[in-house]
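User: Predict the complex.
Assistant: Input components as received:
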Amino acid sequence: MATAPALSRQLAEQLDFAHLVQDGRVHGSLYTNPEIYAREMDYIFHRGWSFVAHESELPNNGDFVVRKVGTQSLLVTRDNKGEIHIHYNRCSHRGAVLCQTNSGHRPRLTCPYHAWTFSLDGRLIGVPDEEAYPEGFNKAEAGLARVARMDSYGGFIFANLVPNGKTLRDHLGRATELIDGLLGLSPVGRIKLNAGWIKHKMRSNWKMIVENQVDGYHAPMTHGSLLKANQTFATVRDRKPKSATRVRDFGNGHTDIDHTRDYLEANDRLFRWTGGIDPARLPKYVQAMKDAYGEDEARRRLIGGPPHSMLFPNISLAEMNIMVIEPVSPTQSIQYTCPVFLEGAEELNARTLRRCEGALGPAGFLIADDAEIGELTQMGVANLEPEWVNLSRGMGKEEILPNGITQAGLMDETSQRGFWRHYRATMAEGQEAA
Ligand SMILES: [Fe+2]
């Protein structure tokens, strides 16, 4: 069973996370220190549940994708019986990387070095000149190394590199309602991530992307040029301080910006979340939703729209796109984005693709702004004073709902504080205690 190397006891004692992460402020070194970064890869990404792939990315037997979790390259395959597996992307012979491309389709996997060949479920099925190996060499014991745990929810597949600890369901906790909210916009309750991923290198720490993804404060300023230039981005334009939208902390580091509430209070327009498309242009989709959920519930879903959320630590359900964050170093990350296609909503999917092209990626109108701000912030926190980053906006004004979710106004930093609380517990004591 593979596990990441634990950090030394000495380092664990040096890093005092109760000091570095306080309720209204966090220390600037959290974005720059390589020892902290190494511990994050181990404690958060390897020992916790990380998103790896969505089942719709591997529609056919023989499909594979390669994904990074923490420092580890993982190989996700769909075998000849349709089962999905996650193995380490490492030949069991001399250790070469088995798959060098990000995705593909193969009947079997052959190592480029000495052509050891594996089935898609990880068994070693071919060794050139096998008779030269000594007695006792057993192919059945030389398959690919499987990750310790794998589980899925709503088609989203997660991996955990250690055998013990919380289940995926415990980790997701109340945040399953966010995934359910997205799937519930499909008349058959399923999404597809098959348009391909836009890959965007960000010169900022991965946690800055997490913080920004559920930040309701920055949009009018950081994205000011977009708001002036393109009035169809209604979901951005509507982020006003007095809006009914709330930021929410679901616990376990999961957070969201709940636009649904704002849209439902307006209660008269479907599809504001698409930039205000006329429902008459989506007749088959609207009818399919009514047939699936009934008139009133379909209307509620089509007014409320998708979640805008960040699931700890690496996946954001960002309305009609999914964003995945891959840490590269303390000062660099890769951000992957992919439009969400709803099964049974082909009329809408074409528009979703166009909107994502306009908003996402290095040439988009939206994410490029966030990338630049992330870079400026990374450069700024490299300066040693004033040491702390302030995250106190809205403290003391938060509302704790009967279901345990904490919420506050759109522009409050409740979502960032929710992320950091879980981060502190995880980094101080390990995933098991968090
Ligand atoms: Fe932004």
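The CA atoms of residues 78 and 84 lie 4 Å apart.
Let me know if you want any component modeled separately.
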